[in-house]
């Protein structure tokens, strides 16, 4: 009996292995961007250079937790929402549009209930179809218990089957994606068993957008917000992506995030302006990012034109910062984007997304930089031969001794569950 079970398990794993390889014929396909509806005036729909993207996300639609449906967009947003797809596709007919559903921790109450799950799924599908979207995205920030993870699996399985049985056969099936934490394991939560359900994600999602930035939310010294490498902790984009791969998510299901924003702080002493320097507060609120401690790439580019401003690129961490008087900003420069796109190619990921496109400069320089690197190297022999172009002290695999999940990897980090969520909430709804 045990033998038969063993053999069937073996066969099952061979089957699933070939499935995941088959899933990987489709790499190099996604160059996406999120468009923030509440920053619509900084990137009017008809000003977007749509040829820079393959997929654009409307970010975001909220959830009505009482009704277990999608919230109707506010009257101010309705016009953008309704014309999002048609306007963008008018200049790039092959562009695909998706609507991103933003879910808070309250989402547990929907994910855990069969009827409420179904209601939410149907309302999302209807809203997407009625407004010409090609897909839907779930951005649940973040599941916070093992039960949440199990319910996420149920939800996505159901979502996929609803899409499959959809009644509009004249159109291709809706795409289904999810916006997920930077690593497959969620750190710094009271529940330490927070691993995403990899097989379910892999089977039901077209792909996962990985939030490869803002790893650490609270600090009293200057830090990099989204370094590609960090040899002393798990807070890096490479660690996160490799953790997903190690856990079994196929590379062709992974789309890596590139932040078009920086994090800013006020230095305690403006003469002490290196990485790890003491800070006293979050940076002043800027017009575009409209939130303390954040700066849009466009605002960073504007500041860095000033000759008194010093910009540094750290080729070891693959990260950049600048300081101007007592303001210190960690951000992704052109070099950083170059290296991150090369990293995505090296690991044969499906693609990248920029977050959000509204924060790019008026020429969409960063979106263009990512695209040009991608196009230039995606078919190159150098890329086929693998790991010979990487700069930085490559974290070529996740550290075999991963820090314990509960470990706070830096004394400087004061991350708590609450300010993580608060930050993300504020960030999305500023
Ligand atoms: C849009 O981006 C493409 C790709 O870089 C470029 O060739 C084109 O000139 C841009 N269009 C506009 C209007 O800037
Ligand atoms: C398709 O139609 C059937 C019968 O009208 C309905 O029960 C089902 O919920 C519909 N599916 C979707 C995804 O709307
Ligand atoms: C900036 O954020 C505040 C809330 O903090 C909001 O009331 C205001 O409308 C926002 N401004 C812009 C231009 O989005
Ligand atoms: C650009 O920076 C200058 C100061 O260096 C500032 O006066 C100006 O308002 C900024 N422009 C924008 C669009 O942020
Ligand atoms: C990284 O920067 C250091 C210091 O500027 C330099 O010596 C080194 O050659 C650089 N490495 C690469 C791979 O660019
Ligand atoms: C940061 O602040 C906390 C208290 O708010 C303190 O315990 C910790 O030592 C500080 N860390 C550094 C590096 O200054």
Automatic annotation (TrEMBL):
Keywords: Glycoprotein, Glycosidase, Hydrolase, Signal
UniProt entry tagged with the keyword Glycoprotein: yes
Annotated signal peptide: 1-20
CC annotations in GO: extracellular region
Transmembrane segments: none
GO molecular-function term, one example from the UniProt record: chitinase activity
Highest rank taxon of the organism: Eukaryota
InterPro entries for this protein: Chitinase_II/V-like_cat (IPR011583), Chitinase_insertion_sf (IPR029070), GH (IPR017853), Glyco_hydro18_cat (IPR001223), Glycosyl_Hydrlase_18 (IPR050314)
GO biological-process terms attached to the record: carbohydrate metabolic process; chitin catabolic process
Domain GH18 span(s) in chain numbering: 29-377
Homology family: Belongs to the glycosyl hydrolase 18 family. Chitinase class V subfamily.
Name of the protein: Chitinase-3-like protein 1
Species name: Carex littledalei
């Amino acid at each position: 009996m045990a033998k038969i079970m063993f053999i069937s398990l073996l066969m099952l794993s061979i089957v699933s292995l070939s499935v995941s390889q088959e899933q990987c014929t489709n790499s190099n396909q996604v160059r996406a961007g999120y468009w923030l509806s509440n920053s619509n005036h900084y990137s009017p729909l008809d000003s977007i250079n749509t040829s820079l993207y393959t997929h654009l996300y409307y970010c975001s639609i909220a959830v009505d937790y009482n009704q277990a449906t999608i919230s109707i967009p506010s009257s101010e947003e309705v016009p953008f929402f309704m014309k999002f797809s048609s306007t963008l596709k008018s200049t790039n007919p092959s562009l695909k549009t998706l609507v991103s559903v933003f879910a808070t921790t309250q989402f547990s109450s929907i994910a855990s209930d069969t009827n409420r799950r179904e209601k939410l799924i149907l309302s999302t599908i209807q809203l997407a179809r009625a407004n010409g979207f090609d897909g839907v995205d779930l951005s649940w920030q973040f599941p916070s218990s093992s039960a949440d993870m199990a319910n996420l699996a149920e939800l996505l399985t159901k979502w996929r089957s609803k899409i499959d049985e959809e009644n509009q056969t004249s159109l291709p099936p809706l795409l289904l994606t999810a916006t997920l934490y930077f690593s497959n394991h969620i750190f710094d939560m009271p529940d330490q068993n927070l691993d995403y359900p990899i097989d379910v994600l892999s089977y039901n999602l077209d792909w996962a957008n990985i939030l490869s930035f803002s790893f650490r939310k609270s600090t009293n010294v200057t830090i990099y917000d989204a370094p590609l490498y960090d040899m002393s902790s798990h807070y890096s984009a490479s660690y996160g992506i490799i953790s997903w791969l190690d856990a079994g998510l196929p590379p062709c299901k992974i789309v890596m995030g590139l932040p078009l924003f920086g994090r800013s702080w006020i230095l305690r002493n403006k003469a002490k302006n290196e990485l790890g320097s003491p800070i006293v507060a979050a940076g002043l609120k800027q017009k575009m990012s409209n939130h303390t401690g954040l700066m849009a790439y466009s605002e960073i580019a504007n500041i860095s034109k000033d000759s008194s401003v010093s910009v540094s690129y750290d080729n070891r961490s693959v990260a950049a910062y600048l300081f101007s008087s007592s303001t210190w900003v960690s951000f992704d420069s052109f070099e950083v984007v170059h290296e991150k796109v090369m990293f995505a190619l090296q690991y044969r990921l499906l693609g990248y997304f920029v977050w959000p496109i509204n924060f790019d400069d008026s020429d969409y320089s960063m979106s263009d930089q990512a695209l040009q690197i991608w196009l230039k190297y995606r078919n190159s022999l150098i890329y086929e031969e693998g790991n010979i172009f990487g700069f930085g002290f490559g974290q070529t695999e996740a550290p075999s001794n991963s820090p314990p999940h509960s470990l706070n990897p830096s004394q400087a980090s004061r991350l708590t569950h609450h300010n993580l969520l608060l930050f993300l909430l504020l960030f999305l709804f500023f």
